[in-house]
Specification:
Layout (H helix, E strand, L loop, with lengths): L1 H13 L6 H8 L2 H9 L3 H10 L1 H7 L2 H28 L1 H20 L7 H17 L11 H16 L5 H8 L5 H5 L3 H28 L1 H14 L1 H4 L3 E10 L2 E10 L2 H8 L5 H23 L1
Antiparallel strand pairs: 1-2
Helix pairs in contact: 1-2, 1-6, 2-7, 3-12, 4-5, 6-7, 7-13, 7-16, 8-13, 9-10, 9-12, 12-13
Length: 300
């Protein structure tokens, strides 16, 4: 039951740009087990499947754990997706205040995993923050799509499952738009095949790379992960305004809308709505409290 709840929390986090399911998995203590379980799906496990049967194969890849986690993620997606969409439109300041607390507390919990701070680990932390800020500064793709872009989409989608701070929802925001990605995917089997190939390559390589870094440079890895999470604050800053402008890409003119962070004092003048600073701070505390409770339950 506890793993089901952890999967539910990770799935809910992964639906929101700036809030990563992998980050929640680190906090709940399931991150390394997920990575290790995925890595166990290899040549040896398939040899076990042929020689020892499905039951031996299932035990070897930690199948029960992965099934329960996946089920929890699926429940959160189907039960909360519409809620997040509606609430982000009706009460964006309050929703993002709560999420801001989640991100802050997640970063704190990950920083606690770094057992020693030196110039190398501090550099890794700063590098993680920079990586996340650069990532969240990218603009949505234009309508011109090709095989390489589609492969990168698939690769990034699978990487977002494992890399804290990189969320599936933000990856889709970057690459999916009405004029380009969706249109040809609906009728071009070649692009679907390339997308699937990118996803498969990401699923095979990403967890193994992460496991190697955790084995060889654990403190550096968690410092970098914490930085990625801290950089995600850019996406969940509660007070935003929309900016629309035209962009030109490879002879295509697209109208793109971005959200820009502003100060609470500017919010009412720009959006004609009260900034709700006090309530927002309370929700930041509530979001942080949720993470600390989850962490305590997971550790107990």
């Amino acid at each position: 039951m506890l793993y089901l709840i952890k999967g539910f929390a990770a799935g809910a986090a992964n639906m929101i740009p700036g809030v990563s399911g992998a980050s929640v998995a680190v906090v709940t203590g399931t991150y390394e087990e997920v990575v290790e379980s995925i890595c166990k799906v290899n040549r040896d496990s398939f040899k076990t499947l042929l020689s020892g049967g499905i039951a031996s194969f299932w035990r070897m890849i930690n199948g029960n754990f992965m099934l329960v986690m996946t089920f929890g993620i699926a429940i959160s997606f189907f039960s909360l997706n519409q809620f997040f969409n509606d609430f982000s439109k009706s009460q964006p300041v309050l929703l993002y205040s709560f999420l801001c607390g989640i991100v802050l507390a997640s970063a704190f919990c990950v920083l606690k995993r770094v057992t020693r701070w030196d110039i190398v680990n501090i550099t890794a932390l700063v590098a993680g923050i920079a990586f996340s800020l650069v990532l969240f500064s990218f603009s949505p793709a234009g309508t011109h799509m090709n095989v390489l872009v589609v492969f990168v989409v698939g690769l990034t989608l699978s990487m977002s499952i494992f890399v804290p701070g990189l969320t599936t929802s933000y990856t889709l925001f970057l690459f999916v738009n009405e004029g380009g990605f969706k249109s040809f995917l609906s009728g071009d089997n070649v692009y679907l095949l390339v997308l699937s190939l990118g996803i498969i390559v990401g699923l095979l390589l990403t967890p193994r790379a992460i496991r190697w870094f955790l084995d060889k440079a654990r403190n550096i890895s968690y410092a970098f992960i914490a930085g990625c999470i801290i950089g995600g604050l850019k996406m969940v800053w509660p007070w935003k305004t929309l900016v629309t402008h035209q962009a030109s890409k490879l002879s295509f003119i697209t109208e793109q809308t971005f959200s820009r962070n502003i100060l609470p004092s500017q919010y009412q003048a720009v959006n004609n709505h009260a900034p709700d600073v006090l309530l927002s701070l309370l929700l930041v505390a509530a979001g942080a409290g949720v993470i600390f409770v989850i962490r305590k339950v997971a550790n107990d």
